[in-house]
Amino acid sequence: MIVSIMIFGCAKRTLPPEESIKVQLSWPADDEVLTELTDNLDWEVFPGEDNYRIKLWVEGESEPLIDDATEGSSYEVDYELADGAYRWTVGVIRDGETAHWSDTLTFHLSLVVLPAAPDDGEILNKIRVYFDWLSFPQANGYRILVWEEDDPDVVVFDNISFTSSEKSNTPFFDGDYCWVVGTRYSEEEEFGRWSDTLCFSVMQYPYSLIDTMHTRADPRDILPFQDALYVGDGSAGLLTCDRSDPLDPEPLSWDEPSGQDVNRAIWIDSERDLLMVSDYRGTHPVLFYDITSPTEPFWSDWTGIWGRKNQDICSEWYRDTLFVAIADYDDGAVLFDMSDTIYQSISTRGTLSPMGNTYGIALADSLMFVTAGTRGLFITHLLDPGEILGWVDTPGEAEKVAVDGDYCYVADGIGGLVIIDFSDAAEPFIVAIDNPQVGAAQKVRIEDDYCFVAYGSGGTRVYDISSPTNPVVIQEIDAMYSYSAAPDDDILYIADRDWGVMTMERD
Question: Is 18-109 assigned to CATH 2.60.40.10?
Answer without folding.
Answer: yes
